[in-house]
Amino acid sequence: MTKVKICGLMEERHVEAAKEADAIGFVFAPSKRRVSIERAAELAKHAPVSAEKIGVFVNASIEEIEETVEKVPLTMVQLHGDEPDELVQEIKVPVIQAFSIRGKEDVARLENSVADFVLVDAPGTDYRGGSGHVFDWTLLEEAEIEASRLILAGGLNAENVKAAVHQTGPYMVDVSSGVETDGRKDEVKIQQFIQQAKGDSMQQTADKTGFFGKYGGQFVPETLMKAVKELEDAYMEAKGDPAFKEEYHHYLSEYVGREQPLTFAKRLTEAWGGPKVYLKREDLNHTGAHKINNAIGQALLAMRMGKRKIVAETGAGQHGVATATICALFDLECVIFMGEEDIKRQQLNVFRMKLLGAKVESVTKGSSTLKDAVNEALRYWVTNVEDTHYLIGSALGPHPFPTMVRDFQSVIGEETKRQIVQHEGRLPDTVLACVGGGSNAIGMFYPFLKDESVRLIGVEASGEGLDTEKHAATMTKGTEGVLHGAFMKLLQTDAGQVLEAHSISAGLDYPGIGPEHAYLADIGRVKYESITDQEALEAVVSFSRLEGIIPALESAHAIAQAEKTAKTMGKDEILVICVSGRGDKDMATYAERLEGLS
Amino acid sequence: MNRLKLLKEQDAKAFVAYIMAGDGGLEKLSEQVLYLQKAGVTAIEIGIPFSDPVADGPTIEAAGNRALKAGVTLEKVLKEMASWTFEVEVPLLIMTYLNPVISYGVERFAKECKKARVSGVIIPDLPYEHRQLAQAFLKKEDVALIQLVTLTTTEKRLEAILQEAEGFVYAVTVTGITGARDQISEDVRTFTRKVREKSPVPVYAGFGISKVQHVDMLREDVDGFIVGSAIVEAFRNQTIEEIEPLIQAVTAPHSV
Question: d(Cα B144, Cα B134) in Å, to the nearest integer?
């Protein structure tokens, strides 16, 4: 169970390649691999939250070390100089002290180290055979040092690390130049090294994929780990199977009615007086929103895994309806958890689900909204995990859900990208989508992520206003935390209790946001804005009258923001809005809130 | 926590009592701890309330909501515990979801746990894969990170998890959430026997233990029992004395 540290990282893509490592190292001492505090902080954003971030220093002052620990932030410190014991003890995070072993006196120094871990630097060592050992391992065998404190470094590479681990059974192995080509880190070598070091131990399967930068992960009770791992394997296998893809696209076209048009909004374009506005018409999907793209994909996967019972949560009821629809189509048993408050707001959808043969369970706990419905669905899954698939509706939850939901929703962005090129001969300048958990947005954005000229804007709900307590603006007001299996951004109290979110739109009423969105915000690839209940309602009216499309309340948030954004854009620019769903389900709210409309 | 090992060597069974901190007010906590240690429990697990306790059943969730309403936080519980001047005779454990710990700061959590004389912590939504998030900090303060194994834990995982085990192993004896149950499935015996064979530390069964008959059924295959919902309920209904026979049934010397 030896851990792996990749040291001397300087570039984002190498940090990403090292995401299956247990630790990454940044060098702050003079070296060709030296990075500044600011640069390390930037790089650390790309590493999983649970990875150790280790800073390497040589005879630095305690002030310098403390400042670096705090600013990056680092979880461990590694010392390579002649640091006195007092300094080692003064450091608040765990400390690794490095020693070059040449003789017995070095072993004595190592034995007396007060650090939590000792790193043995054995340059030039040949681990492969019994001959040619530059470093005499018997020295270490006699040393009174527990293997659980030992970190092995120097001369390691993908070819010899397995033998080195076998021979010494260290706590961790540390590599830097062994994963480089021509003095630069090499992604392939990094991955090969990790694989070799971990061997076929379970760590290899327990990798850290499923992290977007530091967000994501699998923070679920042990009872669910088997199911989550099985799902991960099944999804990876299905993803690579052309037959699965074909079946999924078959249902998308024959049942959902894809592909959906990218409609040029002529009157809206004129009214706003700015860029050419295009609408991605997810409202035209069977069941009225984008949710069904994901429901079909996951239901097919569940059946592939031999599971014929489905549990799901729903907020607005769109995901519940989509799930119930697919369960009817494929003859699957279906239980939907829905908050009592949402049931009141979305009675028509509740009846739809029942009509489709699903069992709708009312959740009266907590705020009785989406968050509590997810809790109950998770509990149901924990109890019935052997024969039930949890068909999560947004890009949330433990890995592989955020990745899988994104992939199933990416059809939105893929079509859009193809269509806009057909219409305009080029990519759009700006793309907007609303964000609750963030599934339609990630599906729309994902195919555009690498097209840096395309500005991406996610729109969350600020409810009654950002300065009130009644909003769902997780990105603007949230802080980091763990909910429903993932490390993400959350609305929470100082004590780490998750707050109730508020939005007029049940589909945006969630106190968290998908981990990939949190990451895209951190690295600045997507900008997140927020729209109030009132602004969304106004957009419903103007959009309905200008384009003859009554949008869902969720989509109206994206439309309202688009109007603001359009004002800053020129006539030769192109803006795309994801109209994630139609407004039928919200008609009762519209009738009530827009009473007296003339 | 060495006491737990000693107990196993003497072939005596452990009784771990779970209470929800601050259910009925934080001032009740010391009373409850004193009561339980006098009643002869082996260790006490103090639950921290959380807004979204997905691993818990209705009894503990309701207790947590009452505690949250009373304004109980992780910080307040640790402060309260650190202020106790009476003699704590049994190991104290903290059971908390991960989010309050992240919010409080993992390192600070480890340090304050030590000050509060906490011997071990249980974080149900921190699986083996992500243990680095807390383990190093806890280790530094000599606080054990208790590992959980369940009926759905695969062989490979089981071995890996047991290798990291410290203090004791929490064997979840139902596929589900916490809460009192009428029956314990036969598979549970096979499972606990397997875990116990491989575990370097004592194995305690929890989730669903509420009756003497559960104890009798599993007695030979575990080193102890964790009782939660039944105790939380009993404190709330002021019928805690009715739990004493269960404690007796576990801890009393037993001849087969």
Answer: 10
Cβ neighbours for B49, distance < 8 A, ≥ 6 positions apart? B20, B21, B22, B63, B64, B65, B67, B68, B72
Supply the mean pLDDT for chain A: 90
Q: Is A447 a residue whose pLDDT tops 70?
A: yes
Shortest CA distance to B59 belongs to which of B214, B209, B230? B230
What own/partner pairs with CB < 8 Å and gap ≥ 24 does A64-71 have? A64/A28, A65/A91, A66/A91, A66/A92, A67/A37, A68/A28, A68/A37, A68/A40, A69/A93, A71/A37, A71/A38, A71/A41
Between vectors from CA A558 to CA A552 and to CA A559, what angle results, nearest 5°? 80
Radius of gyration of chain B (CA): 17
Measured in angstroms, the CA of B192 and the nearest CA of chain A are apart by 15
Q: Is there a contact between B154 and A219 if contact means CB atoms under 8 Å apart? A: no
B45 is catalytic: yes
Residues 398-457 of A with CB under 8 A from B: none
How far apart, in whole angstroms, are the C-alpha atoms of residue A30 and residue A221? 44
Active site positions of A, annotated? 291, 313, 580
Residue A205 has pLDDT above 60, yes or no: no
Say which DSSP state A333 is in. E
Is A93 at the interface with chain B, CB within 8 A? yes
DSSP assignment string, A368-395: SSHHHHHHHHHHHHHHTTTTEEE---SS
Pairing relation of β-strands A52-57 and A23-27? parallel
pLDDT at residue A124 tops 80: no
**Is the pLDDT confidence value at A204 over 80?**
no
Chain A residues in contact with B148 (beta carbon < 8 A): 221-222
Chain mean pLDDT for chain B: 90
B25 dihedral zone (left: phi>0; alpha: psi -120 to 50; beta) = left
For residue A254, give the DSSP letter: I
pLDDT at A135 over 60: no
Extended strands (E) in A205-256: 211-212, 215-219
Burial A274-311 (b: 16+ CB within 10 A, else e): bbbbbbbbbbbbbbbbbbbbbbbbbbbbbbebebbbbb
Residue in chain A closest to B56 (alpha carbons) equals A379
Quick one: what percent of chain A has pLDDT higher than 70? 94
The pLDDT > 90 percentage for chain A reads 71
Pairwise CA distance, residues A400 & A378, whole Å: 15
State yes or no: pLDDT of A134 exceeds 50.
no
Q: Is the pTM of this model over 0.90?
A: no
Question: Cis link prior to A400 (omega < 30° from 0)?
Answer: yes
Q: How far apart (Å, rounded) are the C-alpha atoms in residues A417 and A413?
A: 6
- Per the DSSP assignment, residues forming a β-bridge with A485 are A219
Query: What would the 3-class secondary structure string for A43-60 be?
Result: HHCCCCCCCEEEEEECCC
